[in-house]
Design brief:
The chain contains twelve helices and 15 strands. The protein has helices at about 45-55, 75-85, 95, 105-115, 120-135, 150-165, 180-200, 210-215, 235-240, 245-250, 290-295, 310-315; strands spanning about 1-10, 10-15, 20-25, 25-30, 35-40, 60, 65, 70, 85-90, 170-175, 200-205, 220-225, 225-230, 300, 305-310. Helix 6 runs parallel beside helix 7. The structure holds iron/sulfur cluster and magnesium ion. This is ABC transporter ATP-binding protein.
């Protein structure tokens, strides 16, 4: 089955408290139940914005988001409430995302009480202790404050906060990027372990392609508010089709070798609020022609299953 049956944002603006944070041009995705769908791209491409939009933290003025068959992008806060337990987010920076004035117990109990007013105090604290054990933080530390923990432990607590409501879907926005390299693998393993035990579905936002290759079922590549390619991790890393994906992958240094066939990107990255006409990548693409400047490329599914939005691929010249 699918968790996000339809996520289609086209030619609209994404806003937060009435301020435009990003323009979207061409985003069409679905997220299968139990999979890890990673979203990759350079900073500013809109991948974090996309995750926040899916969770209803940002609004879109064009397009639709459907969660298990129900449209959710236009719901009031009250109607969105049941989805707030099913859909959770883990942020990059556990310093910023945990309230410094609350103990770990308060941080974890608050959402449980809010969404389960029928539970008694023992049931709430049992639930919290259980989830702390699962993320590898001993419940004896529950009366401590976030600043008393290391970065890695703090991210474990953030993950506990996401898990404590027993969600189905977690959007993780660069969840290991702010951590010491030595503990990144531990946090990644914790996330993968929780996914297996709980049958979770992940939307995993990252700029780290080696991590993405390792953990993903499928990968969406974003550039300036567009999904330019969507493919299984295997297809994407062995036969990237979109010129932007090819440029991204060629920049990864290969083990024991040179970064072969490095595609050099020319041109400036345009602003994500005022998108270029046509293909958003045309200013940096070595294959751009007049049609690319004029016409937004549509997503097409190739025989391999890869979905790609590129006139050059469609015309057989890329
Ligand atoms: Fe965009 Fe055209 Fe380059 Fe394809 S060939 S990526 S449509 S500019
Ligand atoms: Mg980001």
């Amino acid at each position: 089955g699918t968790i996000i049956d339809q996520l289609r944002l086209s030619g609209g603006k994404i806003t937060r408290k009435k301020t435009v944070v990003k323009a979207v041009n061409n985003v069409t995705l679905d997220v299968h139940a139990g999979e890890t769908l990673s979203v990759v791209g350079e900073s500013g491409c809109g991948k974090s914005t996309l995750a926040r939009t899916v969770l209803g933290l940002y609004r879109t003025n064009k397009g639709e988001i459907h969660y298990r068959g129900a449209r959710i992008d236009n719901l009031s806060s009250a109607k969105m409430l049941p989805y707030r337990t099913k859909m959770q987010m883990v942020f990059q920076d556990p310093y910023a995302s945990l309230n410094p004035r609350m103990t770990v117990r308060q941080i974890l109990e608050e959402p449980v009480r809010f969404h389960n007013p029928d539970l008694n105090a023992d049931e709430v604290s049992d639930r919290v202790a259980e989830v702390m054990c699962q993320v590898g933080v001993d419940p004896i530390w529950a009366t401590n404050y976030p600043h008393e923990f290391s970065g890695g432990q703090r991210q474990r607590i953030s993950i506990a906060r996401a898990l404590v409501l027993d969600p189905e879907f977690i959007a993780a926005d660069e969840p290991i990027a702010a951590l010491d390299v030595s503990i990144q693998a531990q946090i990644l393993n914790l996330l993968m372990d929780a996914q297996e035990k709980r049958g979770l579905t992940y939307l995993f936002i990252s700029h780290d392609l080696s991590v993405v290759e390792h953990i993903s079922n499928r990968v969406a590549v974003m550039y300036l508010g567009c999904v330019c390619e969507l493919a299984s991790a295997k297809e994407l890393f062995t036969s990237p089709r979109h010129p932007y994906t090819q440029a991204l992958l060629s920049a990864i240094p290969k083990l024991g070798g040179k970064a072969g066939g490095h595609v050099k990107l020319s041109g400036d990255v345009p602003t994500p609020i005022n998108l270029p006409t046509g293909c958003v990548f045309h200013g940096r693409c070595p294959h751009a022609n007049e049609r690319c400047i004029r016409e937004i490329p549509k997503q097409r599914t190739l025989e391999s299953g890869t979905v790609v939005a590129c006139h050059g691929v469609e015309e057989g010249r890329v």
